[in-house]
Amino acid sequence: MGEGIVKFLQDTCNEVRNKHDFEIMMREQELGIHILIKALIFNKIKDERIIQTVQKYYDLKRSEVEIKIQYVKNVDIKVDELVQFMNENLDFTIEEAWKWVWVNKIDEKINDNKSFSQLSSKALWEQLNKWP
């Protein structure tokens, strides 16, 4: 009877571990896609070529790649900032992390620049919510 319980616990632990590893892998894949897009944009590669390149390595629809390109273009975030944020907040999706880090950057700009603070936070949120 004791061996059965140990086996059950081991199987359960392995299942949880495998699920956790899968989630980490998926998050890393999303991060990899964003890093690839950021690198291509930085090197002034046209959107059409970016779409082709991303689709070559990842199984994504054209519309999904277009959305990710818009994220990268609209949010000037260093990759290490995003990685650090995602490591600290494991329950965030890549898209939520981009938005959260972007909002924090806007808050910094408002605090640093009086003229920038004339933009209402409502207007900023409206702009942010237009993004996919």
Average pLDDT score: 69
| Total DSSP E strands | 0
Query: How would you classify the helix and strand content by structural class?
Result: mainly alpha
- Return residue spans where pLDDT drops below 50 for at least 5 consecutive residues: 115-119
Total number of distinct structural domains:
2
Largest beta sheet, briefly? Answer: none
Strand content: under 5%
Number of helical runs? 6
SSE string, helices as H and strands as E: HHHHHH
Q: Helix content range of the residues, please?
A: over 70%
Shape: flat
Q: Roughly how many Å is the radius of gyration?
A: 20 Å
Separation of the first and last Cα atoms: 53 Å
Describe this structure in words.
The chain is 79% helix and 0% strand. The longest helix is centred in the first third of the chain and has 41 residues, at 2-42. The protein is an all-alpha fold. Helix 1 (2-42) packs across helix 3 (62-74) and helix 2 (47-57) packs across helix 3. It has helices at 2-42, 47-57, 62-74, 79-88, 94-112, 121-130. The chain has six helices and no strands. It has two domains: 1-74, no CATH class; 75-132, no CATH class. The N and C termini lie far apart (53 Å). The model is unreliable at 115-119 (pLDDT under 50).
Secondary structure layout plus pairing:
Blueprint: H1 2-42, H2 47-57, H3 62-74, H4 79-88, H5 94-112, H6 121-130
Helix pairs in contact: 1-3, 2-3, 4-5
